[in-house]
Amino acid sequence: MTLEIVTVPCRADNYAYLVKGPDGTCIIDAPDAAPIIATADRLGWTPGVLMITHHHGDHTEGTAALRDRYGLKVMGPKAEEDKLPPLDMALTEGMNGGNGEAYTVPLDVPGHTLGHMAFHFPNAAAIFTADSLMAWGCGRVFEGTMEMMHATMQKLAALPPETMIYSGHEYTLGNMKFALSLEPDNPALLKRAEKVKAQRERGEATVPVSLAEELETNPFLRCNTAELQKAVGMEGASPEAVFAEVRGRKDRF
Ligand code: ZN
Ligand code: FE
Questions:
Q1: The whole model's pTM is what?
Q2: How far is the CA of 130 from the centre of ligand 1 (A)?
Q3: 185 C-alpha to center of ligand 1: Å?
């Protein structure tokens, strides 16, 4: 059986996901319970697990209502356990679980928060990255260091390029404007811009997106390329230094 993944828009610009595999359905993040419950009801799915990526309220505030409704098991990063709703299972990297396409590999992706995790489904070529690697961007570095977030980007960049990235927000048009401000003539960026503008005009989510497309267009994954280094006037600089510069520019953009 193939993994079925449904994107659930929540709040102003958050995404939760419903993931149905051979052994049941899980929810990725709980921005808000109502739209998640409405979607699951419509599909006739009964979630048994909620997996939380990090402690920010826009990823956790629906947790209690989802637990009440479904009696589900709540899992989240052990490193953020003291800031999360009560967990039934505190996750660390290496606690892989599930079967077939639902086989799940929790990965540490710190930077945005110190304990942020992503949930990789290698047999389904999917990863839920929330506010680490985002479609055409990356999360703001709130708790970690620039070096830490750069290492997280490199860790995710090393996954198979066909992996589909499911991130936590619809920020893609803003990320597009920033990327184009650095490289206004890059044909790969211009091509992606047409695609995401059309998606948003149709009211569609711009996620998921393949890692291959991110590697070609996302400035935060291209800090080692001559093209991007030239665009920010840092030819020959270390990728870490370029990342810090690019992330800083995005913060001020
Ligand atoms: Zn966040
Ligand atoms: Fe968020």
A1: 0.98
A2: 7
A3: 31
Query: How far apart are the C-alpha atoms of 241 and 250, rounded to whole Å?
Result: 14
Give distance in angstroms: CA of 115 to centre of ligand 2: 14
The total number of structural domains in the chain stands at: 1
Length of the chain counted residue by residue: 253
CB 36 within 8 A of CB 117: no
* 131: containing domain: 4-252
Beta strand segments in 14-125, E: 14-21, 24-28, 47-51, 73-77, 89-91, 105-108, 117-121
| Structure tokens, 187 | 């044909």
The CATH number of the domain holding residue 10 is 3.60.15.10
**Percent of the chain having pLDDT more than 70?**
100
Each residue of 215-253: pLDDT tens digit? Answer: 999 999 999 999 999 999 999 999 999 999 999 999 999
* C-alpha 239 – ligand 2 centre gap (Å): 25
Interval between CA 95 and ligand 2 midpoint (Å): 24
Neighbours of ion ligand 1 (CB under 5 A): 56, 131
